[in-house]
## 1
Amino acid sequence: MATETQDAADAAGQGAEAGGAGMPQLDFSTFPNQIFWLLVTLVVIYLILSRVALPRIAAVLAERQGTITNDLAKAEELKAQAVEAEEAYNKALADARAEAQTIAQQTRAEIQAQLDDAMAKADAEIAAKSAESEKAIAEIRASAMENVQDVAKDVAKDIVAAMGGDADARSINAAVTARMKG
Amino acid sequence: MDQFIVKPLFGGDTIAWYTPTNVTLWMLLAILAVAALLVLGTSRRAIIPTRTQSIAEMAYGFVYKMVEDVTGKDGIKYFPYIMTLFMFIVFANFLGLIPMAFTTTSHIAVTAVLGFGVFIAVTILGFVKNGTGFLSLFWVESAPLPLRPVLALIELISYFVRPVSHSIRLAGNMMAGHAVLKVFAGFAQVAAIAPIAILGVVAIYGLEVLVAFIQAYVFTILTCVYLKDALHPHH
């Protein structure tokens, strides 16, 4: 502890000694030297700054400002283009929708017309077919009637003959015809 | 106080005005540091800056804005001179914080040249720009007439004290900071209080880093204020 105190005193003593020797700042013999080198330094720094550094930094800053301004203008332009494109797209969409509407309308009308046409044709055909069929049926019926008459006459003649009567063809025919009509 | 002694670099005892001394060395290092930051750092001229270029641009913008804000548009043409002062002082201060370094700005000879240089330049500029109208700086028009001569005397004294305070403020701050560091370092030799002393050294060193920048800033902004007075002497 004692030595430490001694050390502290020494340290303080050194400081006091150096301070007592006079501040180096007030040693006027070094002033011309310091002033000379200071002026040299200031001139050199001034030349470096004014010739190289400051114009360069100013140019870089101006260039950056210009780039930012350009980019902003470009972005604005692109935005306007995008809005324009959207409008065009919307317009095209509306046009296409309207066109689709008309086409659908037209197609529907056309199909309706074709359908009506086909219906009419089919109706006519059906009418013709049914008339034809009726006629055929009538014919078949007529021929069937005739056959029935023939068969009835034959049967009547046979029945008369079988019952021992003398059947002459004409009276039998007349009788059958009369019966059939009745 | 050894750290403040001016020594010849290549031996010998006599210090003539041209002798290369540690002043020469550390001022040369300041020049190299300024060149490294502002010239090498911006050599790529990148639109998107690198870190060094960012710092260079920040230094440029910092001083440029200071000059513009304080002196107005017509002060911009003195921007290179003020930038020179700022870059020299800030790098001299920071380089002085390197252990074993010599702090050029802790010498009153250096700061007095800077301070009186600014004072003389600004005074001449004031008379060149405004003629005798520059004297209206001392004649406070807004004050009542009987007070004006008194105020003029005070203004005159304060005007001539400017370079003294301007230069002593910088040298005094730098010297005091380094001296306090030295005192704490001296206490660190004593085992019992060494931890506290070392903590103190660290804390004071941090403070000195701040002071190194702030004093450069203060010197620069006061230069701008004086320049504004020269350009627009009317209150």
## 2
Amino acid sequence: MAKNALDLAHIFVEFSGNKVLSDVHASIPEGGLTVFVGPNGAGKTTLLLCIMGEVPYRGEIRFHPDIRGYIGYVPQNLQTQTYTPITCAEFLGMSFSRRPLWLGMSKAGRAAVARVLGRVGMEHAEKRCISELSGGEMRRILLAAALLRSPRLLLLDEPAAGVDMRGERLFWDILDDLRTREKITIVMVSHNLSLTAHYASHVICVSRGRCMEGTPHAILTAQNLMTIFGIPIHLYPDQCALSHDLCPMCGAFSMGSDVPSETAVCDCKPPSVRN
Amino acid sequence: MGLLCLYVTMIDVLCSAIGLIPIDCLQHQFMQQALLGLLLLVPMTAVLGVEVVHFRMAFFSDAIGHSAFAGVALGLILSLDPRFTMLAFGLLVGLGIIALQRRSNISSDLAIGVVFSAVVAFGLLVVSRTPGTARNMQQFLFGDILTIGPDELRFLLCLLPMVFLVQLFGFNALLSVALNPVMARAHGIHVAFWQYLFSALLAAVVIFSVWAVGVLLVTALLIVPAACARNISRSLRGMFWWSIALSMFSAFLGLVLSAQPWLSSATGATIIVINCLFFVLSTLSGRCLKGRRA
């Protein structure tokens, strides 16, 4: 039986009398990519912050002994000004180097930075200022900062918010690579349901303070998504009405419709966008 | 006692060394002490300024500076040395603002604004009820580095190593907290400890800066050199060293120029004007560099 990286039991969170989370139970499998989905204000980020100990809660969060003390966090963004003369190498050095940055980085520090930049596909960004990075590049640098501490559990709060499709796809690719190659347990908040359906191994759906969990195919059903978001969303072809050429709910071509075969059933793996 | 003697000797030696500079005005002892005071003070304001810019705490340092006004008023009421009450009140205000920010849900600007108004109003209230104190207050409004004495120099000699040690062990942590406190905590940094320590240190340096340039210009002494350095640097390391170099050069130039008979201006104001000129130049040169890169 697969181990759980952490278990959440009877989690209650209230802010000024407003119930944000109410009796939430969930488990996060070790080595998986778990995604918190749900509408805005559902309590996804609050749940993530509970795991980090940033928000006071009632209930119990049990960490697997191997995980405790090895938690990495990737925020949405940094609180920087329009122009901040901090190079990517300095920003990454900040997270692990004991030597003050005004004395410069040690040779070992520079080597560690170069290695981690390679892991997130940002090999040439060492001397670039963080304020000059695009949204997608910034998210990868934030991920690199978290990776420098060799985490076993990686928590990400909407890491690809505001990033274009290509950048978001690349980011998920990197996360998937980390999960499969380095066995890092990843927990993230995301609004991108199609990429969640494609990459996630486990989904925790938070809505109205409660949650349900399971595999993406079991949780992200048309019926559940209609209940949660109030709009028709069909993520899987088998969720569309087969009696029509076009699904009357989401407008997608059904599996048996008379359309070019490459459109109707596409089982090709999208080309990697990493360069 | 031994440490005190060491400090006295150090001050004498450093003042004598300044006397060797072939500039007429620096042959007077009060000018040597003033320059020594500035050269001990401005590296601290410069490095803390780099952090103030990243923490977006300019308004915070302004509030601390204005608390000096209330601190002096408190000294007058309690018949205590205003230098002591100024420092104690400044520390209290600095730590109080951080505690308010951390423990309540009011925004940072609002917390600082409320405390800022309270301390200024309190100072004015006391001054208005005590005739003859308004003149004493002028020194705190405009500052006078030329009146700095051996006691203040000794205090600066104690403060400088403390600031240096915090920068040595806490520079990376402080910047990390400034960029994202939640991420910093996840990286194992004790955010509250560094926030309180930085505020206390900043309060001590700001209160002392009030002596040099006055309440009205204290924020400028902190942020203008850092802002200049930000314009011309491509790295944090560069910003740190440029900030120190520019602030020391401005302090030296400001003191010497203000003592010239053809200028005869207030030293603090002259230093800040020179800093601001550097800021204009750095902004222009920064734009030129960006244009070339583009």
